[in-house]
Amino acid sequence: AEAVLSDYWDSNAQKWPDREALVDSRGARLTWQQAAQKINRIALALVNELKLNRDDCLIVQLPNMAEHVLARVACEKAGIIAIAIQPTFRHTEVKWIAGQIKAVGTVIPRHYRDFDFYEMVKEVQPELPNLGHIIIVGEDGVPQDCLSLKKIMEYPYEEKYDLKELEARKFDP
Questions:
Q1: 81-91: string of b/e by CB count within 10 Å (b at 16+)?
Q2: The pLDDT of residue 126
């Protein structure tokens, strides 16, 4: 069978577990093994904890950071369509895009460049009946009605769920 992007992350984690896979401008440095573990945990959480269906759409509105890559690869692995949108998009664009694709959730920073992404999502959410999940990246305060990507990446979901269940969900090449 032909490989998809997430397959390469898995095989690289096997071949070069301790080599660097991701480095970003904020100082995050992840080996292939660390990245693969985080990707698996995000994918398992999306499927088993958030109960997202195959082909659901999740908006990823993040700047150029390690978590952006991890979230998008995890979505592919879980059969969820990641729609990456510019961090500069505001209420009008976010509401329009989320409505068009019936987004079930969004992955955002709490704040970035003096803008409060959480407040924006809360303001458009009443007009977006499908948008049930807000996943916050970063340390600066995760509101009660949101999930922390950091906590998802730290929780050993691979001990609770079988990674093989993702095989049937990942996208076909």
A1: bbbebebeeee
A2: 97
Q: Is the pLDDT of residue 140 over 80?
A: no
**pLDDT of 160 strictly over 70:** yes
User: Region 32-37: what's the mean pLDDT?
Assistant: 98
